[in-house]
Amino acid sequence: MTLPVEAAEPLSVRDRFRGILVGTAVGDALGLPGEGISPRRAKKLFSGVWRHRLLAGRGMISDDTEHTLFVAQSLLSHPQSHELFGRRLAWALRWWLVSLPAGVGFATLRAILRLWVGFGPFRSGVHSAGNGPAMRVAPIGGFFASRLELMDGFVSAATTITHTDPKALTGARAVALLTAWVVRDDLRERPDLDDFLGVLRTAGAENGKWETLLDAVGDAVRRRLPVDEFAQSLQLRRGVTGYVYHTVPVVVYAWFRHFGDFEATVTAVLDCGGDTDTTGAIAGALAGAVVGEAGIPPKWIDGILDWPRNPKLLVQVADRLADARNDLKRRPAVRYPWPAVPLRNLVFLLVVLLHGLRRLAPPY
Q: How many CA atoms lie within 13 Å of 185's alpha carbon, on the beta-carbon side?
């Protein structure tokens, strides 16, 4: 069981970076089997507590973790220039599509195709308010925790490369700002509600819809609503959608309500159903930033059976990121056998298809 944050040992920046990256993978892998189904159906299919169920009690990562890894590696390569960072990330996304991933969001697919036909990374995005950018920016928040004047350019580059709707940027900035706050102020206890909402408000200045959502978050905190009831108050009874103004409010509410408890935070988000791999990934990153790798249930980490992109690789990248943030000097990206990725993706596709066939069967 995860210890309350105030009872835990002090966390180093390296611990927090490990929590961000490994937490992303854990939330992603746990949520993947339940992606796209309602909370009611999920409870019938997956009785008991959340555990890895993709194949024989094991889990695998999806695009949420992969994109987060690409962002982290691009930060290592170009920590001082968001333009060069964006170009490096663009090439990572191009080759990611060539490796035949099993799942690609429609907006992301169109944007990467535009990259391949010659659009630059600052003109490739399409008008979409999907949650793709929010799922991958937590490492940027941690990296620039003490340099917010630099953070915004990198968050914008990581967002507009695929999504140009301002709401997508607001959601991504909210995730990055919360992560930065945790790392910069060494948050170990649940913050004051007004401070929490104040940080989130800076993510979408003069954005009326965002303000309305934050008012709803604040009201739910005061009423002590369970996370699933808060989601229902946003008319998300059939699950949290991929719309960023559905995803981010539910995730940040869960993060605040269950602050310092990784298992409770991720479980509460997954119980809401819908786009569970992405909501799980974002919740895992934010909760992981608070508790570090040691605060993540070992059974959830050990249950990820994947290669070559796996928790061990993410720990190596996290450690290198933690070192690089001190001086913003370029570090080499962590190497891994990327030619093996297409074969892995073929195996992953078969696993997903088998799992999909299982979901066609009762109980309904």
A: 14
